Each structure stands twice: as structure tokens, then as C-alpha cells.
Prior knowledge:
By secondary structure, this protein is α/β, with parallel strands linked by helices. The protein has a single domain, classed as Thiamin diphosphate (ThDP)-binding fold, Pyr/PP domains (Rossmann fold), CATH 3.40.50. The protein is built from nine helices and seven strands. It has helices at about 30-45, 80-90, 100-105, 110-115, 155-160, 165-170, 185-205, 220-225, 225-240, and strands at about 50-55, 70, 95-100, 120-125, 175-185, 210-215, 245-250. Strands 2-1-3-4-6-5-7 form a seven-stranded mixed sheet, sandwiched between helices. α1 (about 30-45) crosses α7 (about 185-205) and α3 crosses α4. The N and C termini lie far apart (about 50 Å).
Amino acid sequence: MTDRASMQRVFTRPESLTDRETHYCSGCQHGIIHRLVAESIDELSVREKVVGVAPVGCAVLAYNYFNFDMMEAPHGRAPAVATGLKRSLPDRVVFCYQGDGDLAAIGTAEIIHAAVRGENLTVIFVNNANYGMTGGQMAPTTLLGQKTRTSPRGRKPEVEGYPMKIAEMMGIIKGVALSQRVALTDIRLIKQAGSAIKKAFTNQMEGKGFSLVEVLSTCPTNWGMEPLEAVRWVEEEMVGQFPLGIFKDTEGSGND
């Protein structure tokens, strides 16, 4: 028999997460993303220097789950708040955590101009292709053909336009150091997402400028799916319209 006293714990809660149950729906991947952010901060040993800016959206209560300083910004204004924080406290590691409605709709101007200015910030952009908190309405990232509360016949380009591809947009802006899109549909991709997030923080610590990681994420409740079905939908539908890859990397070769 195994001696329990000699067993080594190999999986623990990151120091940068609080011991608190989250409010997220079953199958939602915000919890995974929170852990990846927390693990990166722990690995870089900067928890006491971090300030996060929470969004208006499903992650509006993120300040309850991260074990470091957090601020709440008005809807879409996280990059503006983060800019003020970083410029006034340049030794801090500042990041925004935003959803598609927060970043790509009401916050479009803020995210683009923060990138154009090359603000030395890290942005975690969670794309679940709908307005999650308010009931599943069409978002700027809703897929062509996707049905939502406000596009019940499916998104049509001649009526609602095309999905906004934020990672590609960031990739053409000179002030951007890193723009990458990742997903969480299997262990390999989760590890890849963690590496991308850690690199985005490292870029900031090295003064390289603006870094954004877009994370394709599930929303089983508003998609009307079981969690595993939602993961397959990301693999089979979302990745087709939002391809994974690096769209800008000042240390790499650009799009891959």
C-alpha cells in the first residue's frame, strides 16, 4: 500500500487564485483562463506587483477570484484605465481581462488606440462569440450563420456584417509586440494558451509594448449545448472562422 505521508502533491491551487467558488456556468472556460493567468503570474514571481482590470461582462466579478490587486472599469474602458495605471505606476504589471462585447463592441476605440500607442500592457481577450452575461445576443465576434437571441435566423453579412477578427487587426498595428489566438479544446492547446499568456506578461516586464492573447472559449448556456458539445463546436466551427496562430510577434516571423 502507498504511504500517504510520503505522497507528494503535484497539483495545487495557484497562489494568485483565491479559494473561492466561481459564479460561472457549467462548462464555461473562464475558470481555465483564470488559472492560466494565475499560473503565469506565479511562475514569473510578480504577484505583489500585478494589477488587473476586470471587464463588464461574465468576468465582472474576476476581482473575487484573483489574489492580487484588481480594479473595475466602466464597460469597454479597461485599456484606458490600464493605461493610466501603467503610466502612473510603471513598475506594476498591468493587464486587462475582457470579453468580446466589452472589448470588440463598446471598447473598440480603447483597445485600438492603446495598441496604436504601444502601451506596455497585457490584454487577455475572451471570445465566446456572443454577449454571455446578458443572455446570448449577437456580438461583434458572432460567427456567420450563428443563431443568437438577436440573430435568430443566423448572422448574415449583408444584414449584420462580418465577425470582427481582433487578433488579425492587432497584428497590423505597429505598436503591438504580440497578437496571438489560442483555444482550450484539449490539453495540448491549453498548454499552448498558457505559454502565450506567460509570454504576453513577459513582454510587458521586458518593456516590449502591447501584447494581446485572444482565447476562443465556450458558452454552453447561451449556445444551448452540453459542455462537451460546446468544446466540439469550438473545434469544428469557431476555429474555421477564427484560425489559431500568431498574427504578430516582434521576436518571431509574424503569422503562422
